[in-house]
Automatic annotation (TrEMBL):
Chief location bin: membrane
Protein name as catalogued: Type II secretion system protein F (GspF)
Membrane-topology descriptor: Multi-pass membrane protein
Cell compartment(s), UniProt: Cell inner membrane
Length: 405
């Protein structure tokens, strides 16, 4: 049964907004009139698109990563407590704080009440619940352990969000320092340098070479700043267009993996995503080939993704998972060894969880090391640039002082 978002006015003159289930918009208006409400607007709630299609929406018309993890955790708790799925969704819809989340859950509940499975209902919201999410939910429904699978999925989402937040916060300080440094240098070049040096230009004094260069650079910044911004925007546009070409994107991703520090971060981040997804799908009872395909789709590095595709072919031919992944030479050896141990003991999921924990800690350590290395480098670079600007201003003063003496 479809869900409709409405706005109505009651007999007391108060405006009410909410979501209700009805066969059609006309039936929804009839329900509102039967409740003594005068409908002002009735329209289909979130989920009126075809399954699997992306939805167009304005600002805030999307489920945030934190909200997705919270909804998953709450739904898992309610199902584990013994509530039927439709009642659990009804509780989530009532306690949702944001209108969009309330409409989203109400629309999902309407599809479930209409006979759809939870995974089938989520297909109407492909942007909020990606393929990997729906595949895990579907596996939980088929195995009859939806509550446990959702609890594990919530753990995965929370760990992924926490790791992403730690990496973003680690690079926040260097980013702020870079922006402030750029602003200070721009101010010095566009205002301070011309104001001071023009005094010596009027005296017809021959200026030092460094001062002349700084004056030329200052004039360029003041008169052609628009060209600088336009050139930067054009460069970003051309780079993004170039990375859409498969051969160029593959070459760039291969180059990223070979970089001394950044390459390890890229490899570690993708390894955590791959192993985490593979662990949760394995625990949910998803066949290994399908789990490998879904885990490979979470990789954002084309080289690693291509090697996973090659490993899938080898596993399909009968090769063990550890040997197939070990032959790619793109994943850390510890991951391969732990998977081999899991194959020997019959508990690959536990070994994958251990690999994820270890690789996550290593990724955090490398991120902190890189940011701790960037901070002094940025300070030294900023100090060097300011020193050059100050020298360009002081050299004419020193020469003039020598001439007076």
């Amino acid at each position: 049964m479809p869900a409709f978002r409405y706005e109505s006015v009651g007999a007391d003159g108060k405006t009410r907004r909410g979501v209700l289930e009805a066969d059609s918009a006309r039936a929804a208006r009839g329900i509102l009139r039967g409740q003594g409400q005068t409908p002002l607007s009735v329209e289909a709630a979130v989920g009126s698109e075809a399954p699997g299609t992306a939805r167009r929406g304005g600002f805030g018309r999307r489920l945030a990563a934190r909200e997705q993890a919270l909804l998953t955790r709450q739904l898992a708790s309610l199902l584990t407590a013994g509530l039927p799925l439709d009642e659990a969704l009804s509780v989530l819809a009532e306690q949702s704080e944001r209108d969009y989340v309330r409409e989203l859950v109400a629309a999902i509940r309407a599809e479930v009440v209409g006979g759809q499975s939870l995974a089938g209902a989520l297909q109407w919201h492909a942007r909020d619940f990606p393929d990997i999410y729906r595949a895990i939910v579907s596996a939980g429904e088929h195995t009859g352990r939806l509550g446990l699978v959702l609890a594990r999925l919530a753990d995965y989402l929370e760990q992924r969000n926490a790791l992403k937040q730690k990496i973003q916060l680690a690079f926040l300080y260097p980013g702020i320092v870079t922006v402030i440094a750029f602003g200070i240098v721009t101010f010095l070049l566009s205002y301070v340098v011309p104001q001071v040096v023009n005094v010596f230009v009027n005296t017809k004094q021959a200026l030092p070479l460094l001062t002349v260069i700084m004056l030329a650079l200052s004039g360029f910044v003041r008169s052609a700043w628009w060209a600088l911004l336009g050139g930067t925007a054009l460069l970003v546009f051309l780079v993004r267009r170039a990375l859409r070409v498969p051969s160029i994107r593959h070459a760039w991703h291969a180059r990223l993996l070979r970089l001394p520090l950044a390459g390890r971060l890229v490899r570690g981040y993708n390894t955590v995503r791959f192993a985490s997804t593979l662990a949760i799908l394995s625990a949910a009872g998803v066949p290994i080939l399908r789990a490998l395909q879904a885990a490979g789709d979470t990789l954002n590095n084309e080289v690693m993704k291509r090697h996973v595709d090659e490993a899938i072919v080898r596993v399909r031919e009968g090769v063990a998972l550890s040997r197939a992944l070990g032959g790619t030479h793109v994943f850390p050896p510890v991951l391969v060894h732990l998977i081999r141990s899991g194959e020997a003991t019959g508990d690959v999921t536990a070994m994958l969880d251990r690999a994820v924990a270890g690789e996550s800690s290593e990724l955090e350590r490398r991120t902190m090391f890189l940011t701790s290395l960037l901070e002094p480098l940025l300070i030294v670079a900023m100090g060097g640039i300011v020193l050059v600007i100050v020298l360009s201003v002081m050299l004419p003063i020193i020469e003039l002082n020598q001439m007076v003496q």
